[in-house]
Specification:
The complex is a heterodimer of chains A (265) and B (478).
Chain A lengths: L7 E12 L2 E12 L3 E5 L6 H9 L4 E10 L2 E2 L5 H7 L1 E4 L6 E5 H15 L7 H14 L10 E2 L5 H15 L3 E5 L7 H14 L5 E5 L13 E6 L2 E6 L1 H10 L2 H15 L1
Parallel strand pairs in A: 3-10, 3-11, 6-9, 9-10
Antiparallel strand pairs in A: 1-2, 1-4, 4-5, 7-8, 11-12
Chain B lengths: L1 H8 L13 E3 L6 H10 L4 H16 L22 E3 L13 H10 L4 H7 L1 E7 L2 E5 L2 H6 L3 E4 H7 L1 H7 L10 H9 L4 E5 L8 E7 L10 E6 L4 E9 L6 E4 L2 E6 L4 E9 L10 E12 L5 E8 L4 E4 L2 E4 L5 E10 L4 E10 L5 E10 L4 E10 L7 E11 L4 E10 L5 E11 L1 H9 L4 H17 L4 H10 L10
Parallel strand pairs in B: 3-7, 6-8, 7-9, 8-11, 9-12, 10-13, 11-13, 12-14, 13-15, 13-16, 14-17, 15-18, 16-18, 17-19, 18-20, 19-21, 20-22, 21-23
Antiparallel strand pairs in B: 1-2, 3-4, 5-6
Helix pairs in contact in B: 2-3, 3-9, 7-8
The chains are: A alpha/beta (265), B alpha/beta (478).
């Protein structure tokens, strides 16, 4: 997937962030280039989801240090909606329910907003209906999703499909998928992962945040990063995920701590 | 998040101007002489003066209701002027004769008059400080036998109807504010739809309070004879004053056999400033009587203004198979308080009622739904469905639901559903992450929330209502 003319999409340098005054991210460095798939793994509470939401601009997370450049621009100068329009997509771990708002209406507004930003054609309700139904086939979704309220009463799997449907519609440059595999049975996982795979191009990149290796059987990463205590403590290839699956996370942090002691000594 | 939301729900009040028109104002205070003065000014017949005095004497024996979930300092009824009329007061045959200053006021208010009225197909009866200054479309309506005029005029020209129906749905001693209104009402609208006539256009009244420290006590009476139907729209605004103004209206609707009355209100009285200073006290009694079989009365209200709203548009379902409906959106912000809902009283057989109430609270406001569903022993096979939803914006506001259900007939079926939701940071972030800004997000959420009620409004009103909530309608048709 990596190719010669790939460009740096995302450059994270020394990123620190707090939530409710408690520091969760303690200096993260990460570079993501076009055409790459990165997996960020790590134990619960290591800061994976915080990292994802901080990049997207969730108001509960305060950036206290470091910088993030997205396509050469300072990401933190953009409001959350501007980041989305610029092509940063977050697939939510727990998508919220929005009662009373039809999914079709919501999807079309999101689509047209991003299209307008790109100077591309917006679609009226009828055109959009045809367009979105095509995209839904990719995820084997029932068309009655369109008439239901956004995520309301959706099963865990339906919510995740709806997230990937939005990714398919918005065609982001950088898609950060936060625990997209959680709550999915094996068939749903296959469908969702299949959908994601079809969306990978030479011009975009994907960051998968996941606790388990099983998603990576379907979406094969170029890099695997392990987070622990608010930092990326180890980076490897796809074989690292397999090793983590058999050995757990403990050895990584032990190894990291002794390495850290060695440098300070 | 709250900054974006605050901004949205804190749109400046656009109708807060005072029109500089000389008014004929009665001295402050209330006693039998005041009532005689009002009656004399209006050249009323003796029976109406008696009606007023009877109401006043009952009012003296009554106490202000304490049960609503609202707080306000005691009202000094002697500090209010009970009559205010624009000068000079003469009969107006066409719009050209109306004071241009007044017309500019209506223009600022966006009242659809003149050509706009024609295009919109709306006949407007304008109430300005309780005196009706112009009624458009009277002639056109007269051709099909519809009477649409100010109630003062009706007292003179159509006395038999007024005498027959006034006070039959809301008796003079019904409640404290209804009694006060019956004693001192200065004007209002009268509408009579004769047998078998479908009113060819929506009828509309715009109310506006202009004079400081004046009360507005309008009285509306709508009678729909057998097999007739009418849709009536009421819009309300008031200028900004630091003092509170009292608005105590009474609306009576009467539907005979197979008649249909639809009454829609968009209420945007001045709500006071962001610290809760000033604003209208809106204490209103609205009640419809489904007198005949198969009759239907439908109330739709969008309540966005007033410092305090105390209002329960109700239906007495006396005729067999009659239908009562109540669709309501009540939005409160800052320090506004609303205690609003409905009463559905089922007397006839197979009577049906529907209640859909949507309360939206923001700022430090308090929003209560209060509703009564009563099924009398005679109401064989009666049915009611109630749905009361509350939405909270921010964490300083309150929402309450007080449903009262009294069923005295075993064959009745009564359903009640209620929910409370909140526009949260996470919802707004979800929209933002899809490129949608807070303003559009809130608009979409609120419109979704109010959809069931807005669908009941006539087209133009639905548009006004959405705008009033500080929102934009997403997309066009479809």
């Amino acid at each position: 997937m990596m190719h010669q003319d790939s460009k740096t999409l995302l450059a994270v340098r020394g990123l620190r962030a707090t939530v409710n005054g408690i520091e969760i991210l303690k200096g993260i460095d990460l570079t993501v280039k076009t055409g790459e798939v990165h997996a960020i793994m790590g134990p619960n509470g290591s800061g994976k989801s915080t990292f994802a939401k901080t990049l997207a601009g969730h108001p509960a997370y305060e950036v206290t240090g470091g910088e993030v450049m997205f396509e050469g621009k300072n990401l933190f100068e953009l409001a959350p909606e501007a980041r989305a329009r610029a092509g940063v997509f977050l697939g939510f771990q727990y998508p919220v329910e929005i009662p009373g708002v039809a999914n079709s209406q919501f999807l079309r507004l999101a689509y047209n907003t991003v299209q307008a930003q790109r100077g591309k054609e917006e679609l009226d309700p009828l055109e959009f209906d045809d367009f979105v139904r095509e995209k839904m086939k990719l995820l084997e979704m029932n068309p009655d999703f369109l008439d239901r309220s956004v995520n309301e009463g959706f099963s865990g799997g339906e919510k995740k499909r709806n997230e990937i449907l939005q990714m398919a519609l918005l065609e982001p440059r950088l898609a950060i998928l936060d625990e997209t595999d959680s709550g999915l049975d094996i068939d749903a996982l296959r469908v969702v992962a299949g959908g994601v795979n079809q969306l990978i191009t030479r011009d975009n990149a994907i960051v998968l945040v996941t606790h388990y290796q099983r998603l990576l059987n379907y979406i094969v990463p170029d890099y695997v990063h392990v987070m622990d205590g608010g930092r990326i403590v180890k980076t490897g290839g796809k074989e690292l995920a397999v090793e983590l699956e058999t050995r757990g996370y403990d050895w990584v942090s032990v190894e990291h701590k002794s390495a850290a002691r060695a440098t300070t000594a | 998040m709250s900054t974006a939301l605050q901004h949205l729900v804190n749109q400046p009040y656009k109708h807060g101007f005072v029109t500089d028109i000389e008014s004929d104002v009665a001295p402050k205070g209330l006693n039998e002489d005041t009532i005689r003065l009002i009656s004399a000014k209006k050249n009323e017949p003796e029976w109406l003066l008696e009606f007023r005095l009877k109401a006043y004497r009952q009012w003296l024996k009554m106490a202000e209701p304490k049960w609503p979930n609202v707080k306000y300092p005691k009202i000094d009824f002697q500090a209010i002027s009970y009559y205010s009329a624009p000068k000079p007061k003469k009969k107006l045959a066409s719009m050209d004769e109306v004071d241009p200053e007044l017309l500019r006021t209506f223009e600022k208010l966006g009242v659809p008059m003149n050509e706009r009225a024609a295009l919109a197909g709306v006949a407007v009866d304008v109430i300005f400080d309780s005196v009706s200054v112009a009624t458009t479309y009277k002639q056109k309506l007269a051709e099909v036998g519809i009477i649409f005029c100010s109630i003062s005029e009706a007292v003179h020209e159509h006395a038999e109807f007024v005498k027959q129906y006034l006070g039959t749905v809301v008796p003079v001693g019904d409640n404290y504010y209804a009694a006060l209104n019956s004693a001192v009402f200065t004007d209002g609208s009268f509408c009579f739809i004769p047998k078998g006539v479908k009113c060819p256009m929506d009828l509309s009244t715009y109310f506006r309070i202009n004079t400081e420290a004046s009360g507005q006590f309008e009285r509306t009476l709508i009678v729909a004879e057998e097999g007739s139907s009418v849709s009536y729209l009421e819009g309300c605004t008031a200028p900004k004053f630091d003092t509170n103004q009292l608005h105590a209206a009474v609306v009576e609707l009467i539907a005979l056999d197979n008649a249909d009355i639809k009454y829609s209100t968009v209420q945007n009285w001045y709500a006071g400033d962001e610290n809760g200073v000033g604003g209208i006290y809106n204490f209103v009694t609205k009640r419809g009587l489904c007198k005949g079989v198969n009759s239907r009365i439908s109330w739709t209200q969008v309540e966005t203004g007033s410092a305090i709203t105390w209002k329960y548009p109700s239906c007495i379902l006396r005729g067999d198979n009659s239908v009562g409906e109540f669709y309501s959106v009540a939005l409160t912000n800052n320090y506004q308080q609303a205690d609003t809902g409905t009463k559905m009283v089922h007397l006839g057989k197979n009577t049906r009622s529907t209640i859909v109430s949507k309360g939206i609270s923001a700022g430090h406001s308090n929003n209560s739904y209060r509703g009564l569903v009563r099924i009398a022993p005679t109401a064989e096979g009666a049915r009611n469905y109630s749905q009361c939803d509350s939405m909270l914006i921010g964490d300083q506001c309150g929402a309450n639901t007080f449903p009262y259900i009294r069923v005295n007939n075993h064959s009745a079926k009564v359903e009640h559903e209620a929910s409370t939701s909140k526009i949260g940071e996470d919802q707004l972030f979800y929209f933002a992450q899809r490129g949608i800004g807070a303003e559009e997000a809130v608009s979409m959420i609120i419109n979704g929330f109010c959809k069931d009620v807005f669908q009941q409004l006539p087209m133009e009103f639905a548009v006004e209502a959405t705008k009033l909530l500080g929102l934009k309608l997403e997309g066009s048709v479809g």
